[in-house]
Structure formats: structure tokens, C-alpha cells
């Protein structure tokens, strides 16, 4: 029996709590938090990212998050809270579910980058193309 993307999103949204920009900001202020941008590089280059966020595209997440992977990124630590965002929240939810499956307990979906920017959260400027 196959699973639809709708079912995958429902499961991800059930497993990963959604938080508001204000809640995300409070968690970031407390420290020991990884803010994770899972959008593709061209999206980040165009709009910028949450100040201090770490960018790992959705396609590389498992490889970067798994401590046993040769591609492991040391920014990932299971004792940290992980706040994930994308463009609108769908990839963040799926990414959060993936991290939960990999043993990360404190994972939260902050929705889309626009939510953060509209809230007035600190943003790093877009990258100039070719840099």
C-alpha cells in the first residue's frame, strides 16, 4: 500500500509541533537551539534567512543529521532543540519528522520564512549571486 504526500504531511504535522515566530524567538534566546533552513539554495540566495540559521537543503538533511554519516554536520546535536523552517511549512514538517526518526527529540516546525520576516524577526540579507 502506497502513501500519499498528504498522508505524509499529516503524519509529520502530528509528530512535529508547530510554533509561532514569537515562540521560536524565545527558544532562540534561551540558547542550545539549532535554527535550520531546509529550503533549496536559490531560495535562500533570493530572500536571505533567519539570522544565525544553518542552511541544509531538504535533500541532504539525513546525511548531515546522522552522526554515523561521513557527511555529518557537527551543528546537529541531539541535545539541542531544533527549529525548522522552509518557505511555507511543508518541508519543515517533513524534515522534522525525519529528525524525529533519527532520534532528535526536541524538534519544532516554525513554518515559513515569510512568517518570520512578517513578524519582524532578524533576517540575514540575501546573498549576491555568484558569491
Rg (C-alpha, Å): 14 Å
Sheet-strand content, in percent, reads 15-25%
CATH architecture: 3-Layer(aba) Sandwich
> What does the average pLDDT come to?
95
Order of helices and strands: HHEHEEHEHEHE
CATH homologous superfamily name? Rhodanese-like domain
Low-pLDDT segments, ≥5 res: none
Domain count, please report it: 1
Structural class: alpha/beta
Tally of alpha and pi helices: 6
Shape label: globular
* Helical fraction: 25-40%
How would you describe this structure to a colleague?
The chain is of the alpha/beta class and 131 residues long. It has one domain: Oxidized Rhodanese, domain 1 (3-Layer(aba) Sandwich). The protein is built from 6 helices and 6 strands. It has helices at residues 5-15, 21-30, 41-47, 61-65, 90-101, 113-119, and strands spanning 33-37, 49-50, 54-55, 81-86, 107-112, 123-124. Strands 3-1-4-5 form a 4-stranded parallel beta sheet, with helices on both faces. α1 (5-15) crosses α5. The chain is globular and about 45 Å long.
Could you give a short description of this structure?
The chain has 131 residues and is α/β, with parallel strands linked by helices. The protein has 6 helices and 6 strands, in the order ααβαββαβαβαβ.
Describe how the helices and strands are arranged.
Layout: H1 5-15, H2 21-30, E1 33-37, H3 41-47, E2 49-50, E3 54-55, H4 61-65, E4 81-86, H5 90-101, E5 107-112, H6 113-119, E6 123-124
Parallel strand pairs: 1-3, 1-4, 4-5
Antiparallel strand pairs: 2-6
Helix pairs in contact: 1-5
Amino acid at each position: 500500500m502506497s502513501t500519499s504526500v498528504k498522508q505524509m504531511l499529516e503524519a509529520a504535522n502530528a509528530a512535529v509541533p508547530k510554533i509561532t515566530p514569537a515562540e521560536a524567538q524565545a527558544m532562540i534566546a534561551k540558547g542550545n537551539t539549532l535554527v535550520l533552513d531546509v529550503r533549496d539554495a536559490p531560495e535562500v540566495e533570493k530572500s536571505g534567512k533567519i539570522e544565525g540559521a544553518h542552511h541544509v537543503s531538504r535533500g541532504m538533511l539525513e546525511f548531515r543529521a546522522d552522526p554515523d554519516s561521513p557527511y555529518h554536520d557537527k551543528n546537529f546535536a541531539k541535545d539541542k532543540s531544533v527549529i525548522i523552517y522552509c518557505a511555507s511549512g511543508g518541508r519543515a514538517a517533513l524534515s522534522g519528522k525525519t529528525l524525529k526518526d533519527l532520534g532528535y527529540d526536541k524538534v519544532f516546525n516554525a513554518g515559513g520564512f515569510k512568517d518570520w520576516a512578517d513578524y519582524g524577526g532578524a533576517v540575514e540579507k540575501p546573498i549576491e549571486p555568484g558569491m
